[in-house]
Every structure is written in structure tokens, then in C-alpha cells.
Design goal:
One of its GO terms (biological process) is methylation. Specifically methylates the N3 position of the uracil ring of uridine 1498 (m3U1498) in 16S rRNA. Acts on the fully assembled 30S ribosomal subunit. This is Ribosomal RNA small subunit methyltransferase E. This protein is of the alpha/beta class. The strands form 2 sheets. Strands 6, 7, 8, 9, 10, 11 and 12 form a 7-stranded parallel sheet that branches. Strands 1-3-4-5-2 form a 5-stranded mixed sheet. The protein is built from 6 helices and 12 strands. The chain folds into 2 domains: about 5-65, Hypothetical PUA domain-like, domain 1 (Ribosomal Protein L25, Chain P, Beta Barrel); about 80-235, Alpha/beta knot (3-Layer(aba) Sandwich).
Length: about 240
């Protein structure tokens, strides 16, 4: 498989570019790519550019070939609204959600979230998750990088996005996920933390127009529930 790399700047139509230091290190030192090896570059604006690698000491250059207008985005614009999860679970959730085709990820602070982030720590963690999203695109072939939004409180989130379909996973709900009517536009999927949504949070979500859905009779972990639901919705409404 040809290695794919995200370039954090607009790629020119032709010519040779120098790869950023971190990208060059990953290509030459980690992946051990050599002179003349083919790579694929993308800048997040859509499409991708085949290129040939040139390693010159610690620097790497890429000779660009003709741009290919390849799109691998799902016809379903699905946003994952994920309550903060502890440890490395958020990394896993972000990476796999991107691979499954979500359009964006909104981390929310829930009452029962074990992980608590604010200020500079929160900003740095979001920046880290954005890089995880980039790696998910590099691996899965996506040429547009989903945005990881700044962390917000659940009620702050509920005050926005009222115009789209919002589905909240709730083991006590009576409707199945696939009972929902396919939206004409964006759909947003709310996933609770390890301890689940509180009664007050569920009530606030219902008041804001969120539709409660369940995934069968089983209670799934937070790192499992969202990914299972994304796959189900991609099967029903997307491109699976």
C-alpha cells in the first residue's frame, strides 16, 4: 500500500515541495521510505496528489504529479457528539469514527465524565485529537479532515444545531436506531460517558428535540456504542 500523508498547507499544481520536518521524519525514519518511493499527498481541500519521494539527508522532498479529484466522503453527513471518555478511549473513538466516515466530532463534558478538561489542557487535548483525526484520514484514504470541535458543555451544545436531526443513544428508549427517518441534511449522534447520561441530561436532550434511540437490548460501552451506531447509520443511509 502506498503511504499517504497530510500536508498542512495547500499543495501547488505542480513542481517539487519540501515536506514539513515532522512529516519528513515519519516518512524517512519511521516508515523508512527511500528515494523514488511513491507517496500520496492531500491537503484537506479534497482530492489527492501522487508524488515521488526524494530523501536528502534529514530533508524530504516530493515531486508532484497530476492531482486526482478523488472523493471518499459519505453522502451521509454524520456528526459524532461524544461525551468525554477517560484514558486513551477518546483517541480510539476519534480515530475509528474518522475511519467510519463521520464529518465532524464534538467532544462534550457530561456530568458523569471521568475525564475533566478545561483551559489550556482542554485546548491541547483537542489539538491532539485533531492530529488523531488526520492519521485516521491518512490510513483510511479520506482526503478531507473532519474537524474536532472545542470541548463544550452538553447544555451549550444543545443550544445550537436545533435545525438538524439529533439522535441520542439511550438504553431505555423504545425506538430502535433504524426506526429513525432518514434526514434530508445533517444528522448528529449523541453518545454518553462511561456512567451514562444523567436523568437531568436526558431530560434536557429531550426538551431540545433529541430523539432517543437504542441499540438492541444490550448496554454498550461508550467506546463501542458510537462506533456501532455510526456503522449502522452508514449501512442504512450512507455508503456501506
Amino acid at each position: 500500500m502506498i503511504s499517504r500523508f497530510f500536508c498542512p498547507f495547500p499543495l501547488p499544481a505542480s513542481g517539487e515541495i519540501q515536506l514539513p520536518e515532522a512529516l519528513a521524519h515519519h516518512a524517512a525514519r519511521v516508515l523508512r521510505l527511500r528515494d523514488g518511493d511513491p507517496v500520496i499527498l492531500f491537503d484537506g481541500s479534497g482530492g489527492e496528489v501522487p508524488a515521488l519521494l526524494s530523501v536528502r539527508g534529514k530533508q524530504c522532498f516530493a515531486a508532484l504529479q497530476d492531482r486526482r479529484e478523488v472523493e471518499r466522503e459519505s453522502p451521509l453527513r454524520l456528526v459524532l457528539v461524544q461525551a468525554l471518555a477517560s484514558g486513551d478511549k477518546m483517541d480510539w473513538i476519534v480515530q475509528k469514527a474518522v475511519e467510519l466516515g463521520v464529518a465532524a466530532i464534538v467532544p462534550v463534558q457530561a456530568e458523569r465524565s471521568v475525564l475533566r478538561l478545561a483551559g489550556e489542557r482542554a485546548a491541547k487535548r483537542v489539538e491532539h485529537w485533531q492530529q488523531v483525526a488526520v492519521s485516521g484520514c491518512e490510513q483510511s484514504g479520506r482526503n478531507r479532515v473532519p474537524l474536532v470541535a472545542p470541548i463544550c458543555g452538553l447544555r451549550d451544545y444543545l443550544a445550537r444545531h436545533r435545525e438538524c436531526l439529533r439522535l441520542i443513544l439511550d438504553p431505555m428508549a423504545t425506538q430502535r436506531l433504524l426506526d429513525a427517518v432518514r434526514p434530508a441534511g445533517e444528522a448528529q449522534l449523541l453518545i454518553g460517558p462511561e456512567g451514562g447520561w444523567s436523568d437531568d441530561e436526558l431530560a434536557a436532550c429531550r426538551s431540545a428535540g433529541c430523539v432517543g434511540m437504542r441499540l438492541g437490548p444490550r448496554v454498550l460501552r461508550t467506546e463501542t456504542a458510537g462506533l456501532a451506531a455510526i456503522a449502522a447509520l452508514q449501512t442504512a443511509w450512507g455508503d456501506f
